[in-house]
User: What shape does this take?
Amino acid sequence: MSRAKPVTHEIPPMKDLTTENITENVNLINSQCADPRLRFLMERLVVHLHAFARETRLSSREWAAGLDFLVAIGQISNDLRGEMILLSDTLGLSMLVDSIDHPRSANFTEGTVLGPFHTHDAPVTENGYVLHSDPDATRLFVLCTVKDAKGNAVGDVQCDVWEGDSKGFYDIQNPNRAEPDGRAVLRSSKDGVFYFNAVVPVPYPIPDDGPVGKMLKALNRHPNRPGHVHFMFQKEGYDTLITALYPRGDPYETSDPVFGVKQSLIVDLEEVDEAISKQYDVAVGTKLLRYDFILATEEEAMEMRIAKATEAIDGLGVKAKIVNGLPIPELD
Assistant: This one.
């Protein structure tokens, strides 16, 4: 008896396969997909993958090496090491997708990469929390506001913050990690203010002991990220903002291996004066990072997303409708 799975729908017949028509055949078979967005994604993925193979005259040896590379990425990954995220970051894909899915005009704070070091176990705590127990660190007081495009304070925003220590290590890079360090989840006050005690960020190498590190070495690229502090903002009715701030003057400011630095996110550090010291109980002279984050509402973000999606699909010459900010080609 045959072990073939039953097929309950009509299958479009493939043509005799050649290098010229295989793309058409793959997309013909995939066209049976009932989800129009998934069908569109797979069609364009196949077109571009096949075009890459044709343009480069990809050899079997190179193709096999690519597969081995992806297998190795999966093998080294675990709950605390996201090697696939690292690959996406170092190819600029993470930054590109974030900019597409969360478009921003000059009126709003720009986003950047999430990175492979975010976790979901940060302590939920109060403003003023001390992120690090690092005795060697240069202390940094972070004092920020969250506002909307009209300058109104946005209160009760969940502010997820994280950074490395004075040596450039994140807590999850410690094999003996027992609890979170260098991270916290805070809430903005009714005046849109949130603040915490951190350390002055320093440059550090992204994990380069795995497949992505080997790729960077082969490309003669360095692994060093400029120092930064991560932020993620979430509140119902507002588009999630994932971003980071980079103290000015870092030696790797213009060569970030994950392409995360934007001019609007580079900041000048100040020093805590007597007024701030008294109000927030922070030592005078402590390094100070101040920034006003501007959040987009879900409606504002959707308007920008639709405008960009319409522009992109028009450039392809494809007849499509925009659903939830995403282009879906219309069937003839």
